[in-house]
């Protein structure tokens, strides 16, 4: 019992379905024997991690797939114990330093020192360096990133860093310049549909073309989401029909619902209800930028062109403030309140114009 | 008096000229004698002849040089009148050479003596005040006698420059008076002191010289100078004021030197002082009485003066005060002499709080009537011995009993806000019932040991009783008063509360405890043993009456509404009200706002004020921002939570969009407030707090001025935030557990995987019921999830108005799943911390069943598992002696088949973790 998305994940560079030229380049890179630090970046569901694992396999052989999980303990200068879980093989270690929250700097420093301080024991090992895989680098604090850049240079003899991020905008230039950046862009819709067909064929299922296209449309070019949606559709109804409903994530429908209720009435009382919904999303850990994005999308749909720009600007402003502030709900609510005000004003004016 | 002075003025020139002839001789004489005195530094060598001569000389000299002083009266009044002008030159010489040194040694000792003296002085004064019934008339005797008996506290009021001088001067005087015989040794000292006084009086005069008429001046000076100088003052003629000021300028250099001889005699004085300090009032009253006799003749004239003085304006007093202060600093380089430091001037002789303390139980404000706490306490205390030793079986009253007389309790607990009169009540009740009080308050250390030692000895007189009083219950009526029991805290009073309770249990005497807050957790245990008397604040009307009568007595006129305002602002705290009233009386303050009791408002009250248009009328922007500072950490949250329920002051005709715009403005401001908050806290720039106050509270409050429509809610943010953190933790756990299988980040799991994963596990159960259990288990294991993860998965993927998929599953199936899960045990490639958070999951059927199943599993197969454990060489488990070890091996053995490539040791560790947990059950 495994989800398709995990079951049919390609495990070698040659088996990758798209960005094949990039895959061959990576293969060449590895075969040269040495490579610089790498920074993989691209949107979620584009296949960064898959590519990295395939690369590692190319590098060390199937030994990298024998993984173990370890808890590593670190002690902060203030004597606070932090525990971070790592996934490691004999050749590499993977860690998500942002698990440690504000103490990620300690994790980065200590972990890399530990891992990099020793050479590979196995002299017959293919490489004389280990790989440290850091995920979600864009969520590292600035302190940690600065700590990272020195260690990157210092231990270059014994280890290579592979960094994985969604966007390089949050990665400091110092680190970007020390790495070979590899952009993994999201798959195109035809690529997604072809992958879906492949999977269904392997599963022995008949996937109608329309449905595949619709899934590709809905998945926001996120391959992971596409495959999960496809499987969800199969669970809901099989054999597929081309017009069967596609299950959307609950949080997305919830945001749409919220947008509807904002548009239905603009009053402080309604704002209170909206606040409850916003809280619900935040509690579930839906990132605020997604909330803003989808709210704006739905709200702007029913806005006249004249206020569309204003609303978009508002959304941008408050989304920015969310990042600068600490309590997301304040800014989300302020956006909704301002939108209600703008919208109501526009409606009243247009009604007056009609009379 | 004024007449007297004039007559003196008229007489002065004549007298001066008559004595002029003998002047030169006198100077020579005094020089010689003075030197002898200073060098020998002993009383014995003093001869009476010297005393007289200087006096004469002095007078002559004075008349010659300044022609200010009238010769006759000084001698008459004081017997040994010191040399003034003349004596200056000989002393000057002396001082230059060697006397300065002496001053330096003696200083410290002298200071100590002075300090001691001050204490006795104060005491003496109190005694004196009590005895002297006629305050005003006694003034004259005071002006004369105080120097002797050192009434510094009373003096300062009348003569501002005196406090500076009084200790040293008075010491000298007393010394003299005790000896009674005008001795030679005294003379230099007296001279110096007198000269100082003179200088003071002259300086004092200078600022007010122009406007004060001669008689007033005389009176003023008289107080300043003390009795010796009285005659001098009278001699001062208006015409000679200029010369006086000249003298003032002259005096500075001689002053330094002149003080020295005084000091030389200090060593002698010191011993006497100490004796004096010991004897206390006796020594004071003696010379006092004599003094009064001596002065009696003068009094009639002096009286008039004092009356004049009493009408003196404060401005002249203060000016005199200042000038004397400046002189003291200039003339006395060695500032270590305490006599120069002016003592603070008390506004009144007694605090109103003390003055108007209720004298009997009946006078306690707001405590009349048979149901009042006072009456209950009296009743309880009166019947205490009867109740406790009456042989009657006492039943613990129900806590809700209305008319309980507290007979059961051995102690009473008086509780109430500060200033309602708890302590006063206890004192008065004890006094009226004739109980001896032993009081311990927060200023005493009340640790366990101390209480035990001191109090038990003091109070449990019962044990020794039979020997002494032949079986009487208690010889004298004691009562232990433990004041401020809620202040029993910290290391000092460690165990004090327990000891107090023990004491109450075994006590043979009544105990009265007092505290402010009876609902405080610390009081809870004590409350079980105490007769609970809770004092409520007296009503405004009750207080108003009492306060009005006090105001009347003090001749303080306050309008009724002002008084009410004070009372409400003080929150009916009688002590505070009295203090404020006396402050008002002293300062003629009319600014009632200034005395507002600064109480901390709760966030609810703050919020109501923030948005209340009515309150805003009287508030400045500072007042508004002050609201924020009542609790700046929670205020922004409260504002944010409740601003939407505000009804702003807008005409009904206002457009909806306008209304909405107000809310949008408020929300924007709140959002900026949060930005400020972030910067403030992340960079520790606390100076931004006022900015935050503006954004987070003042602007929303002003924009949405109106009133709050609904009830004020507690900020939901706190709860939501903690729930958010909890769910985030769950998510992180799931992410970590599924890490081997799932490539996505935590967020990807949250957004995409969750539902699929949940459905993967639950769908077989929903569709196939019990048949689907193996499939579900396989899914769990495939993703390395433990049972807890499934529950967090459910919680995370649950959105409001979505159906809980768990509800689709029959409970039979759930039970089957749990059973199967427990049988196979979790097999994970990671170690699970053995200490799991207690009840981190919400209540669900599974957890219960899990517990049951655990029991079964343990009962079934401990023996088999032992064997498995031996077989499995890979497993490194800490073998525990208890059952935990057994069950741990079980977990490990099953995990073997499930995962081969994933390290078995981890599985073992996991099993060990579970085993440990189970062992605890």
TrEMBL record, chain A:
<dbReference type="InterPro" id="IPR027417">
    <property type="entry name" value="P-loop_NTPase"/>
</dbReference>
<dbReference type="Pfam" id="PF21960">
    <property type="entry name" value="RCF1-5-like_lid"/>
</dbReference>
<dbReference type="GO" id="GO:0006281">
    <property type="term" value="P:DNA repair"/>
</dbReference>
<dbReference type="InterPro" id="IPR003593">
    <property type="entry name" value="AAA+_ATPase"/>
</dbReference>
<dbReference type="Pfam" id="PF22534">
    <property type="entry name" value="RFC_C"/>
</dbReference>
<protein>
    <recommendedName>
        <fullName>Replication factor C subunit 3</fullName>
    </recommendedName>
</protein>
<dbReference type="GO" id="GO:0003677">
    <property type="term" value="F:DNA binding"/>
</dbReference>
<keyword id="KW-0235">DNA replication</keyword>
<keyword id="KW-0539">Nucleus</keyword>
<dbReference type="GO" id="GO:0006271">
    <property type="term" value="P:DNA strand elongation involved in DNA replication"/>
</dbReference>
<dbReference type="GO" id="GO:0003689">
    <property type="term" value="F:DNA clamp loader activity"/>
</dbReference>
<dbReference type="GO" id="GO:0005663">
    <property type="term" value="C:DNA replication factor C complex"/>
</dbReference>
<dbReference type="GO" id="GO:0005634">
    <property type="term" value="C:nucleus"/>
</dbReference>
<comment type="subunit">
    <text>Subunit of the RFC complex, an heteropentameric complex consisting of a large subunit RFC1 and four small subunits RFC2, RFC3, RFC4 and RFC5; the RFC complex interacts with PCNA. Forms an heterotetrameric complex with RFC2, RFC4 and RFC5; this complex has ATPase activity but is not stimulated by PCNA. The heterotetramer of subunits RFC2, RFC3, RFC4 and RFC5 interacts with RAD17. Interacts with CNTD1; this interaction facilitates crossover formation.</text>
</comment>
<dbReference type="InterPro" id="IPR050238">
    <property type="entry name" value="DNA_Rep/Repair_Clamp_Loader"/>
</dbReference>
<comment type="function">
    <text>Subunit of the replication factor C (RFC) complex which acts during elongation of primed DNA templates by DNA polymerases delta and epsilon, and is necessary for ATP-dependent loading of proliferating cell nuclear antigen (PCNA) onto primed DNA.</text>
</comment>
<feature type="domain" description="AAA+ ATPase">
    <location>
        <begin position="34"/>
        <end position="190"/>
    </location>
</feature>
<comment type="similarity">
    <text>Belongs to the activator 1 small subunits family.</text>
</comment>
<dbReference type="InterPro" id="IPR008921">
    <property type="entry name" value="DNA_pol3_clamp-load_cplx_C"/>
</dbReference>
<dbReference type="Pfam" id="PF13177">
    <property type="entry name" value="DNA_pol3_delta2"/>
</dbReference>
UniProtKB/TrEMBL annotation, chain B:
<dbReference type="InterPro" id="IPR012178">
    <property type="entry name" value="RFC1"/>
</dbReference>
<dbReference type="GO" id="GO:0005524">
    <property type="term" value="F:ATP binding"/>
</dbReference>
<feature type="region of interest" description="Disordered">
    <location>
        <begin position="130"/>
        <end position="346"/>
    </location>
</feature>
<dbReference type="Pfam" id="PF25361">
    <property type="entry name" value="AAA_lid_RFC1"/>
</dbReference>
<keyword id="KW-0235">DNA replication</keyword>
<feature type="compositionally biased region" description="Basic and acidic residues">
    <location>
        <begin position="245"/>
        <end position="269"/>
    </location>
</feature>
<dbReference type="Pfam" id="PF00004">
    <property type="entry name" value="AAA"/>
</dbReference>
<feature type="compositionally biased region" description="Basic and acidic residues">
    <location>
        <begin position="55"/>
        <end position="65"/>
    </location>
</feature>
<feature type="domain" description="AAA+ ATPase">
    <location>
        <begin position="408"/>
        <end position="541"/>
    </location>
</feature>
<feature type="compositionally biased region" description="Basic and acidic residues">
    <location>
        <begin position="145"/>
        <end position="225"/>
    </location>
</feature>
<dbReference type="GO" id="GO:0005634">
    <property type="term" value="C:nucleus"/>
</dbReference>
<dbReference type="GO" id="GO:0003689">
    <property type="term" value="F:DNA clamp loader activity"/>
</dbReference>
<dbReference type="GO" id="GO:0006281">
    <property type="term" value="P:DNA repair"/>
</dbReference>
<dbReference type="Pfam" id="PF08519">
    <property type="entry name" value="RFC1"/>
</dbReference>
<feature type="compositionally biased region" description="Low complexity">
    <location>
        <begin position="878"/>
        <end position="908"/>
    </location>
</feature>
<dbReference type="InterPro" id="IPR003593">
    <property type="entry name" value="AAA+_ATPase"/>
</dbReference>
<feature type="region of interest" description="Disordered">
    <location>
        <begin position="78"/>
        <end position="108"/>
    </location>
</feature>
<dbReference type="InterPro" id="IPR013725">
    <property type="entry name" value="DNA_replication_fac_RFC1_C"/>
</dbReference>
<dbReference type="InterPro" id="IPR003959">
    <property type="entry name" value="ATPase_AAA_core"/>
</dbReference>
<dbReference type="InterPro" id="IPR027417">
    <property type="entry name" value="P-loop_NTPase"/>
</dbReference>
<comment type="similarity">
    <text>Belongs to the activator 1 large subunit family.</text>
</comment>
<dbReference type="GO" id="GO:0005663">
    <property type="term" value="C:DNA replication factor C complex"/>
</dbReference>
């Amino acid at each position: 019992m495994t989800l398709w998305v995990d079951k049919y994940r390609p495990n070698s560079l040659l088996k990758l379905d798209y960005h094949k030229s990039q895959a061959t380049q990576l293969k060449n890179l590895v075969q040269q024997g040495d490579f610089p630090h790498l920074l993989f970046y691209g949107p979620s569901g584009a296949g960064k991690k898959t590519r990295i694992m395939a690369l590692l396999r190319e590098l060390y052989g199937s030994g990298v797939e024998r993984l173990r999980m370890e808890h590593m303990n670190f002690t902060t200068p203030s004597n606070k114990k932090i525990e971070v879980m790592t996934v490691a093989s004999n050749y590499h270690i993977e860690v998500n330093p942002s698990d440690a929250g504000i103490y990620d700097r300690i994790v980065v420093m200590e972990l890399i020192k530990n891992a990099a301080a020793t050479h590979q024991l196995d002299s017959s090992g293919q490489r004389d360096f280990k790989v440290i895989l850091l995920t979600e680098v864009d969520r590292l604090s600035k302190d940690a990133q600065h700590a990272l850049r020195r260690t990157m240079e210092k231990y270059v003899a014994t280890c290579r860093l592979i960094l994985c991020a969604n966007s390089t905008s949050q990665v400091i230039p110092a680190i970007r310049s020390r790495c070979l950046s590899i952009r993994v862009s999201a798959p195109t819709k035809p690529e997604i549909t072809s992958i879906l067909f492949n999977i269904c064929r392997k599963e022995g299922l008949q996937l109608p073309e329309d449905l595949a296209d619709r899934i590709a449309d809905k998945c926001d070019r996120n391959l992971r989401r596409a495959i999960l949606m496809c499987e969800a559709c199969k669970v809901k109804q099989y054999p597929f029909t081309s017009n069967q409903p596609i299950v959307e994530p609950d949080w997305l429908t919830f945001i749409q619902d919220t947008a509807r209720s904002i548009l239905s009435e603009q009053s402080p009382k309604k704002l209170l209800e909206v606040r409850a919904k916003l809280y619900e999303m935040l509690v579930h850990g839906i990132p605020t930028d997604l909330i803003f994005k989808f709210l704006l999308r739905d709200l702007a749909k029913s806005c006249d062109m004249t206020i569309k720009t204003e609303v978009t600007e508002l959304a941008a402003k408050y989304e920015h403030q969310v990042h600068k502030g600490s309590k997301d709900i304040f800014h989300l609510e302020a956006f909704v309140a301002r939108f209600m005000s703008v919208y109501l004003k526009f409606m009243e004016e247009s009604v007056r114009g009609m009379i | 008096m004024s007449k007297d002075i004039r007559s003196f003025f008229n007489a002065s020139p004549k007298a001066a000229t008559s004595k002029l002839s003998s002047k030169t001789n006198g100077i020579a004489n005094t020089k010689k004698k003075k030197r002898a005195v200073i060098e020998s530094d002993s009383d014995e060598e003093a001869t009476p002849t010297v005393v007289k001569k200087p006096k004469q000389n002095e007078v002559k000299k004075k008349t010659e040089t300044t022609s200010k002083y009238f010769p006759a009266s000084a001698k008459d009044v004081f017997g040994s009148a010191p040399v003034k002008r003349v004596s200056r030159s000989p002393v000057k010489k002396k001082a230059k050479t060697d006397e300065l040194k002496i001053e330096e040694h003696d200083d410290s000792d002298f200071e100590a003596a002075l300090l001691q003296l001050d204490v006795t002085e104060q005491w003496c004064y109190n005694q004196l005040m009590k005895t002297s019934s006629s305050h005003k008339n006694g003034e004259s005797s005071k002006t004369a006698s105080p120097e002797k008996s050192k009434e510094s506290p009373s003096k300062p009021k009348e003569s501002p420059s005196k406090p500076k001088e009084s200790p040293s001067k008075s010491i000298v005087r007393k010394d003299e008076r005790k000896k009674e015989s005008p001795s030679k040794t005294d003379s230099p000292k007296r001279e110096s002191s007198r000269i100082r006084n003179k200088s003071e009086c002259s300086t004092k005069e200078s600022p007010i010289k122009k406007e004060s008429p001669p008689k007033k001046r005389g009176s003023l000076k008289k107080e300043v100078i003390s009795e010796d100088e009285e005659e001098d003052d009278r001699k001062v003629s208006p015409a000679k004021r200029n010369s006086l000021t000249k003298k003032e300028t002259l005096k500075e250099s001689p002053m330094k030197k002149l003080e020295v001889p005084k000091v030389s005699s200090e060593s002698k004085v010191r011993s006497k002082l100490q004796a004096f300090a010991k004897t206390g009032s006796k020594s004071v009253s003696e010379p006092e009485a004599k003094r009064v006799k001596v002065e009696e003749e003068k009094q009639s004239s002096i009286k008039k003066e004092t009356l004049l003085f009493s009408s003196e304006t404060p401005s002249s007093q203060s000016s005199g005060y200042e000038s004397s202060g400046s002189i003291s600093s200039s003339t006395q380089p060695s500032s270590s002499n305490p006599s120069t430091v002016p003592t603070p001037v008390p506004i009144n002789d007694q605090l109103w709080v003390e003055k108007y303390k209720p004298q009997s139980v009946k006078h306690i404000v707001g405590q009349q009537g048979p149901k009042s706490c006072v009456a209950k306490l009296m009743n309880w205390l009166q019947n205490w011995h009867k109740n406790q030793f009456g042989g009657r079986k006492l039943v613990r009253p129900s806590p809700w009993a209305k008319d309980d007389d507290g007979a059961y309790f051995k102690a009473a607990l008086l509780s109430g806000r500060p200033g309602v009169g708890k302590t006063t009540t206890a004192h008065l009740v004890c006094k009226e019932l004739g109980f001896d009080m032993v009081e311990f308050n927060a200023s005493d250390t009340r640790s366990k040991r101390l209480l035990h030692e001191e109090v038990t000895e003091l109070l449990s007189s019962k044990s020794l009783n039979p020997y002494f009083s032949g079986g009487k219950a208690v010889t004298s009526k004691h009562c232990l008063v433990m004041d401020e029991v809620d202040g029993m805290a910290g290391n000092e009073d460690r165990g004090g509360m327990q000891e107090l309770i023990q004491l109450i249990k075994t006590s043979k005497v009544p105990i009265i405890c007092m505290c402010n807050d009876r609902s405080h957790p610390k009081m809870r245990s004590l409350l079980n043993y105490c007769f609970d008397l809770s004092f409520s604040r007296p009503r405004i009307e009750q207080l108003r009456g009492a306060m009005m009568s006090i105001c009347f007595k003090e001749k303080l006129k306050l309008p009724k509404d002002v008084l009410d305002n004070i009372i409400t602002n003080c929150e009916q705290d009688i002590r505070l009200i009295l203090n404020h009233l006396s402050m008002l009386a002293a300062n003629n303050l009319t600014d009632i706002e200034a005395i507002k009791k600064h109480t901390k408002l709760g966030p609810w009250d703050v919020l109501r004020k923030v948005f209340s248009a009515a309150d805003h009328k009287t508030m400045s922007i500072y007042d508004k921002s002050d609201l924020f500072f009542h609790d700046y950490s929670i205020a922004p949250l409260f504002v944010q939570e409740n601003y939407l329920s505000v009804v702003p002051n807008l005409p009904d005709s206002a457009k909806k969009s306008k209304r909405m715009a107000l809310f949008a403005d408020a929300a924007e401001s709140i959002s900026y407030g949060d930005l400020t908050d972030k910067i403030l806290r992340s960079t520790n720039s606390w100076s931004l707090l006022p900015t935050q106050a503006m954004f987070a509270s003042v602007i929303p409050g002003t924009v949405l001025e109106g009133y709050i429509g609904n009830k004020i809610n507690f900020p939901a943010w706190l709860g939501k935030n903690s729930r958010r953190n909890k769910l985030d933790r769950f998510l992180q756990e799931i992410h970590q557990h599924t890490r081997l299988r799932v490539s996505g980040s935590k967020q990807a799991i949250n957004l995409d995987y969750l539902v699929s994963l949940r459905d993967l596990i639950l769908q077989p159960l929903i569709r196939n019921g019990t048949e689907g259990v193996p499939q579900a288990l396989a899914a769990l294991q495939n993703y390395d999830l433990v049972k807890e993860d499934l529950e967090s998965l459910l919680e995370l993927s649950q959105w409001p108005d979505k159906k809980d998929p768990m509800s689709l599953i029959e409970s039979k199936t759930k039970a089957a799943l749990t059973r199967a899960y427990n049988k196979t045990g979790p097999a994970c490639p990671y170690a699970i911390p053995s200490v799991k958070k207690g009840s981190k999951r919400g209540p669900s059927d599974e957890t219960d069943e899990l517990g049951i199943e655990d029991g079964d599993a343990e009962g079934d197969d401990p023996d088999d598992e032992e064997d498995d454990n031996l077989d499995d060489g890979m497993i490194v488990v800490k073998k525990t002696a208890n059952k935990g070890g057994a069950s741990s091996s079980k977990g490990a053995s099953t995990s073997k088949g499930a995962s081969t490539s994933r390290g078995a040791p981890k599985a073992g560790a996991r099993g060990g973790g579970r085993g440990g947990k189970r062992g605890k059950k």
